[in-house]
Description:
Largest sheet: 5 strands, mixed
Helix content: 25-40%
Strand content: 15-25%
Amino acid sequence: xxxxxxxxxxxYWRIVTDPNREVSQEQHxxxxxxxxxxMIDQARAKSKLAxxxxxxxxxxxxxxxxxxxxLGEQWKVFYGANTKIKKDAPKECAERNAVNAARFSGYxxxxxxxxxxxxxxxxxxxxxxxxxxCEVCVQTYSILPMVKxxxxxxxxxxxxxxxxxxxxxxxxWKEFESRQ
Length: 180
C-alpha cells in the first residue's frame, strides 16, 4: 500500500541515533522553545513544594542535554523548589536545585532555566519585574561548564498571566559583574 509518506532510510536512523553526532545550539534552542510553556507550568506546580519560614515559594524547571543518554532521554527537564527553614539558615534556591539535579544525573549541558516566583528586591535592593536568580546562583552558573553564555533564563510570576523576562546567562553575568 502506497502512503505517500517518505520512509527514513537506514542512514537516517544511523545518524539520528548516533550518540556522537553534533547537535547545534539552534537545535537545542528550538527544542527549548517547543516546551518552554510546559516548563513554566511545571515550575509553578513545583513552587507548591517549596518550604520557607515565610511565604516565599519558588519553583524551577531546567532543560538539559546529555549526548550519551539513550535515545529519547537525551533531552530532559529537571525540577526544583526553594527551601529555607529559618531566617538565618542558608537558602537552597529552586533553580540551583534543578541545575544540580541535572548535573548529578550526568547531563552536561543546560539549555534553558525557568524560574517562577514572586519578585523581591535583590542583594543590592533592586526590585526587578520578575524574580531573577540570586548572586549565589549566578556565580555558581559561571563556574559550571554545563551552563553556557547562551543558556536561556526565563523568569515569570507565579500568576499565570504575570510578567515574564527572558535573558541569556551572559546578560545576568554582566549585570552581576557590574555591581562588583
